[in-house]
Amino acid sequence: MAIHEYDLVVIGGGINGSGIAADAAERGLKVALFEAKDFASATSSASSKLVHGGLRYLEHYEFRLVREALGEREVLLKKAPHLITPMRFRLPHRPHLRPAWMIRIGLFLYDHLAKRVTLPASCGIRFNPHTSALQSQIRKGFEYSDGWVDDSRLVVANLLHARELGADVYNYTPCVSASRENGQWLVTVQDERSGETSQVRAKALVNAGGPWVKSIFDEQLKLSSPRSIRMIQGSHILVPQIHKEKCAYILQNEDRRIVFVIPYLDKYSLIGTTDLEYKGDPRQVHINESEIEYLCNVVNKHFKHNIRREEIIWSYSGVRPLCEDESDSPQAITRDYTLELQDEHGAAPLVSVFGGKLTTFRKLSEAAVDKLRHYLHCGHCQSQKSILPGGDCDPEQLSSQLQSDYPFLSQANCRRIAHAYGSNASHWLDGAQKKEDLGQWFGEQLSQREVDYLVEHEWAMSTDDILWRRTKLGIITEQADVNALTDYLTKDVQGAHANVEPIARVG
């Protein structure tokens, strides 16, 4: 069987890998991407779900990173308006914080380091002790703008875009090995479903393994890694809504660490994050009792409504692979990224991604592919103006239109669908005139037709893929419905992939 040949192979299906694949495909390159598990199944689905400049990074004088992130915030709001929405953030001022005048200067910089078109400027605010959700002694603060994002769906949207442009995209297909051979890369991958091993050739390779970027050097490439990373655990908890306001809060504790309280899915508050050194398997990371206590204590020092451990509905943890910079504390480690380029006698280049943050993925992707232009003879970046699939709509208007067109769907479900899929919702909703037309239901909001769409078009294979990454319906889905979905997928996924041809079988 002939070995498939590509211009570029990307290892890693998180936000950086997906962005690089999309950028390269937009430039006309033939691209393949391989992810060991599901897309966004590690760091890229365990973020604080923010597109933000990083106000606290100003304290560490990371002006270039903040400027780039602020500029990208504007780009991404236009690139994926269904997945990324503006949000106002309130910063309560307490005695242990820097003087108010100093915070005003920081917010002035935040407003002006990059061109701001979409979002309103920062301002000072007063809290009414009788009506405010905050403790009555907190009387003043500040308000500024950033954005909220569905992180795992942003990854999928980039992969959909890459596939539309001709890229081949595979999840549950880990890279087994990659080596240089005759001026190219020979990459061996394994399909987890069938166990079959296949090979592809590529002119260039990108290591976007996130927390595994160094272990890919050690195990798959058998090369020495040019850099080290520090893995920092960040955990979040989800509780019933602490307040009714649509704004988020940014709380700075006495230890100078930041905790966000973010409105989530209209009836919850998402609280995080923590910063702990982590040494284990990134897939085994989980919140510990000290993190739960820490997050609850920070919230309870600020809000009238105190939260207890028993109120936690869901928690998640992720590992941020930050570039080693010898900082003393986890929160001081740079969130900037470094790209390392290596080749062999001017051929078979390898670009490796160390560090980075969700907000700057597009700029990182542009820089990564730019490093390969000399080798691949491709054009300039096009991603600044392109719209991701589903993004050619106003999600609020679409939500209202869905309620009108499909009155059997609840208002909450219409809103969820509009913000998850944008205009792509028509791919699986069109033609439905009653609830039964959408097939079997797995809970109040998830239909068989949506599940089929996710399996056939968005690479979903497992219950977790669907309930926690393609949607966030795992939060409200009862166990009986989870079991029914698992049974359905066992039959459906096996049938859907029974006739999939391997890439290029070894032997």
TrEMBL record:
Pfam families to which the protein is assigned, alphabetical: DAO, DAO_C
Domain (FAD dependent oxidoreductase): residue spans on this chain: 7-326
Occurrences of domain Alpha-glycerophosphate oxidase C-terminal (ranges): 381-486
Source organism phylogeny: Bacteria, Pseudomonadati, Pseudomonadota, Gammaproteobacteria, Celerinatantimonadaceae
Alphabetized UniProt keyword annotations: FAD, Flavoprotein, Oxidoreductase
Enzyme class: oxidoreductase
Family: Belongs to the FAD-dependent glycerol-3-phosphate dehydrogenase family.
Superkingdom field: Bacteria
Keyword Flavoprotein: yes
A biological-process GO annotation: glycerol-3-phosphate catabolic process
Gene Ontology CC: glycerol-3-phosphate dehydrogenase (FAD) complex
Known EC number: 1.1.5.3
Protein name per its UniProtKB record: Glycerol-3-phosphate dehydrogenase
Known cofactor(s): FAD
PANTHER family, per database record: GLYCEROL-3-PHOSPHATE DEHYDROGENASE (PTHR11985), GLYCEROL-3-PHOSPHATE DEHYDROGENASE, MITOCHONDRIAL (PTHR11985:SF15)
Record-linked InterPro entries: DAO_C (IPR031656), DAO_C_sf (IPR038299), FAD-dep_OxRdtase (IPR006076), FAD/NAD-bd_sf (IPR036188), G3P_DH_FAD-dep (IPR000447)
Keyword Chaperone: no
Catalyzed reactions per annotation: a quinone + sn-glycerol 3-phosphate = dihydroxyacetone phosphate + a quinol
GO MF assignments: glycerol-3-phosphate dehydrogenase (quinone) activity
